[in-house]
Amino acid sequence: MSEITPERPDFFLQHRVLLERAVSATTSREHWTPYPESPSTSIYGADAPANGEAAFRAQVGTPFELPGHPGSGEVPATETSPYGLPLGITYPRVTPDEAVAAAKAATGAWRAAGPDTRAGVAAEILARLNAASFEIAHAVQHTTGQAFVMAFQAGGPHAQDRGLEAVAYAWAEQKRHPASARWAKPQRKGGPLALDKTFTPVGRGVSLLIACNTFPTWNGYPGLFASLVTGNPVIVKPHPAAVLPLAITVRTAREVLAEAGFDPDLVILAAERPEDRTAGALALHPDVRIIDFTGSTEFGDWLEANARQAVVHTEKAGLNTVVLDSTDDYRGLLGNLAFSLSLYSGQMCTTPQNLLIPRQGIATDQGAKSADEFAADLAAALDKLLGDPARAAGTLGAIVNDGVLKRLEQAAGLGRTARPSAPVDHPEYPEAVVRTPLVVRLDAEADGDAYTREWFGPVSFVIGTDSTEHSLEIFRTTVREHGALTAAVHSTSEAVLAAAEEAALDAGVHISENLTGGVFVNQSAAFSDFHGSAANPAASATLSDPAFVTGRFATLQSRRPAPAEEAARA
């Protein structure tokens, strides 16, 4: 265990109250966060916005420094801002074998430190990441295309919430058993059989984090911190287009680890060129025992099938579905859905894609609305939401890559267009590629090939069905077969809501009901909402729950006879 000295602070003592409160929040499921989501100077300090932007700007066009990082040479610049800003940042190069060897060599003292020390170090890393939220926000904005406020919230405090949530679960599960116990079995004759036993949580081995382009920190922090706190070193393999947010994270983690007296190689950055394809090589390395992945279904399925030596946690793609039956707040329904479809240009793994509505229509407080009328009204709600270019840019952000544009173009040739996608001029970044959502009218019977595949990006389908019962059956079947991360239902009937809940349980997906206000189906709150479900094909893990952390460690015991005089008293 690393000795606590005046030069090596006791981070567990500093953060124990925070950790206990976090564990309590995972149990109560109430609203709680220690990291304010508002980018306000009254919270983060008057100089925080300027200092954060200056730190980001100073990094542009320069090598990213990670003192003492293993490997040699550098990875050339691979990031281009969706807003048109050249980044030109290079990163340290490390081969898969070098990364794994360095990570393994760093493990011993970290394992011996125990859950309390590890949780304290993780909490300090998160505290420093929170202090750097403005710098991280600019890094997220200019690698993912998120608008700045969303980049601040999702890339900063909300990601930190998810990281702390994973810390809480990992810490609590390792402390489920006592560190030591006296076992005494009475005997018919003589004294009891007495053993002294110890129980030590031991990490599974090297952990690999394969991060995505769109939410590198929000999706990445749970696996990173769950693995660290359970005693495992972590190799962070960012998406080549979104390295900087995780490079800042790795730098911060390495600094805190060194201050605490541990080898900073417990966290390693494995940056790569797109053509290097190091994720596959790392994933199959025999010493990589844990994998966390967010990205395409194709690669996620490959990991699950081939990385047999590792515990694999994936978040992939799915058919996020909304079942429309009836509503007593049609205006609120339309506004809520319009925002859900528009937020970050639909480039969220939780954005609704398939909107199922009976062809003959639904009952609303504004009268009956047919499927065609609903599609037209949704288009009008989108027009209203996105009519002002500045407001539209703040909601939509920028298109993250050409693949999204290609899918958008392909989807425009399907069915009947209820609302075409249109470009928006960004008032601050004229080179940004901004597109409004496309809404296409499909039919459940005729267009199954279209809506049973995922169209990641600003693409949604209004799908006419025979009835609400038909909609629920399509929902149940398509999610069970193809997966989903979110689902929603709108109905004034308790019977329909109950049927939708039952269908969601059958399909293995979380469901939201009658959202018409300021809570949206594609947003989830740490410590309260579960994100993802191992119960359908879109994911093999939930962020976060006990199952997300328990496979990362084993509790190993040692036992020996108790001293004779103590055994006699047992």
Q: Could you give the order of strands across the largest sheet?
A: 12-13-14-11-10-15-16
The major pleated sheet works out as: 7 strands, mixed
Uncertain segments are: none
Mean pLDDT: 96
Radius of gyration, taken over Cα atoms and rounded to an integer in Å: 25 Å
Beta strands, count = 17
Instruction: Indicate the percent of residues in helices.
Output: 40-55%
Number of alpha- plus pi-helical segments: 21
Strand-residue proportion = 15-25%
Choose one word for the global shape: globular
> CA-to-CA gap between the ends?
30 Å
Main structural class: alpha/beta
Task: Describe, in plain words, how this protein is organized in 3D.
- This protein has helices at 11-28, 41-44, 48-59, 96-105, 107-131, 133-144, 148-155, 157-174, 221-229, 244-259, 278-283, 297-306, 330-342, 371-385, 389-396, 402-411, 448-451, 468-482, 494-507, 546-550, 564-569; strands at 74-75, 91-92, 180-185, 193-203, 206-210, 234-237, 267-269, 288-294, 311-315, 321-324, 354-358, 416-419, 438-443, 459-465, 487-490, 512-513, 553-561.
- The protein is an alpha/beta fold and 570 residues long.
- The strands form four sheets. It has a seven-stranded mixed beta sheet, with helices on both faces.
- α19 links the parallel β15 and β16.
- α1 packs across α5, α1 packs across α8 (157-174) and α13 (330-342) packs across α14.
- The protein is globular.
- The mean pLDDT is 96.
